[in-house]
Amino acid sequence: MTKSELVHRIKRIIPDGIVRSYRKSKRFLLWERQQMIYTALVKRIRQKEEPIRALFIVNDASIWKYDSLYRLMEHDSFFSPQILVCPTITNITKQQAQDKLQRTFDVFSSHGYNVVKATEDVSLPGVNIATFQPDILFYSSLWTNYMESQYDVYNLCNYLKCYVNYGFSNTAGEWGYASAFHGLMWRYFVECEDVRAIAVQAQPREMKNIVVTGYPIYDEYKAAKGDTSIWKSSDLKFKRVIWAPHHTIEGHDGVLKFSTFIENAEEMLSLVEKYKDSIQFVFKPHPLLMSVLYHHPQWGKERTDAYYNNWANGVNSALVNGSYIELFKSSDAMIHDCGSFIVEYLYTKKPVMYLGHSREEQSNVVGRKAYCCHYHGDNIEDVQRFLDNVVLDGNDNMKQIREEFYDEVLLPPNDCSVAENMIHEIKKELCK
pTM for the whole thing? Predict the structure, then answer.
């Protein structure tokens, strides 16, 4: 019997109440220990004469939310920023992991970042964080189980750690905004006052690390050019519509069940053909959707690859992975069933349809407000009505509601950019 099997058997005979109490006590002790370490670290860093080393840990370019912060640090002599690209090790083959590692590195390298790979070969251990002598670590995702355990938040206690939600926090459940991961951050930068309030209510002791700065996509969207080369044609007679399905397919293991991909996949391709003279479409799947479909009994690798290729090679369709800010800005509308996009697309102030059953019960206060800014659809007929009435004919009766949400929730505080708010908070603590 292995050690893990033994632990599993023991857990099965221990009452749930005792397990919960143990986990709560363990979480408190970890948090308390981390706060003591942070106090010592801040004192040490304040004495430094050389720039503060900021290391950004990332394994997927599509969830990168730190561009404006990195660029501001890059031009500030107080900081020395660098990006560490780590391999993904969960729900992915070795070859896929190797390809993704190189692809992610190439994305950051092509944009002029100071970036290094954790390893050249995903079958070998990654570089030790201590090699970079960082003062502050910035996590791109709370799902650190997708990377080697040495990069886990619990194994990097001796560094200041910061986090910005990789998706605008709008889902009900403490895991999304007030988990042990969030509590262990030195600074947890959140999107708006609503998110701060629900996180503090959930964990009043641990969430003292929260600072409301706004969400970084605001800065990126302001700086974006609206690059139209993403689309197959530059002809303005075509409306530009994004379809962004989530990866949480019903029956697939996971916390959330949002995706309507299985029900609508083939019919969405039919709509691409139907509107070939009036609409260009972009397929923007969640980064995890492909691997989920590879393991789906009705799909598999061959069918999935063929489907993605149909989108990529269509006359009036395209496949887009990775960064989506330019895609958003150059679009006219979006159809989706994603969690983070329910808020993020509203930065465009453009019409958007949420496809699927109401997610209000699974949403926090921000998610419910954002959901009310959407057109809603249950099936492909509803999608077609949205395309005909709102996108093509311009009957957009939700416009004012979206603009009010933008002003009340999305604008960052202090008449500053989001990155400026974060920099101010860091310097305020480390320059004393």
Answer: 0.80
